[in-house]
Amino acid sequence: MAGRLATRIGKVLPRRRARRFLRDDRGVTIVEFGLLATPFFAIVGAILETSVVFLSGQILDSAVQDVSRLIRTGQAQQAAMTPAGFKTAVCDRVFGLFSDCEGPGGLHVEVQVLDAFSDVDMTPPVNWTCDEDEDEAACAAWTRPEAFTPGQGSSIVTVQVYYQWPLILSMDWLGLSNLPSGKRLMAAAAAFRNEPFT
Asked: Scanning 4, 22, 43, 163, which has its CA 20 to 30 A from the CA of 179?
C-alpha cells in the first residue's frame, strides 16, 4: 500500500511541475528571439552583401566606360597614358569601394587593338579549376598578363577590367561567389572604334 502511494505521488509531482513549467510565460520573448534571430540576420546580411556587390559592379562598369572614353577620343594617346595611369584613372572613379585597386591583387586591365569587332574575346583571365587544396595566392593569380595598347585613330579597341571581389559573408546558398577561391569575379568591358583623331 505504501509503495502504491509513493508511486502515485511520484507521478503527480512531475506532472504538476510540468504543467507549471508549460504555463509559465516568463522568458518567452528571448526564446522566440533566439529562434528567429539567426534567419533574420542571415537575410539582412544577404541583402546587404548583394547590394554592395551589385553597387560595386555598376560603379566599376561606369568607371571603365568613363576612362575608355579617354582612349576613344584620343586624349589618352595624346597624354601618353601608361598602363599604371589607366589603372589609376579607373581607381579614382570607384570611390574607394575597391580596397586594393592598384595593388598586386587589384584590378586586371587589358586594352587591346583588334582587326574586327568579330575578333572580340571576353574570356576572364582566371583559373576556374582551382580547388580548396591549392594555395590561395595561386588561385587568385591572373592567368593572362595585363595589356595596354590604346591604338590610333579609327582603331577597334577592347577594354576589359577584372576584379576579384572578396565577399564578407560566405553564404554558399546565396550564390554570390563565382570563383573557386570563394570570391566574386567582377568584370567591365567596352568595345569601340576610336574616333578618327590624328
From this structure: 43
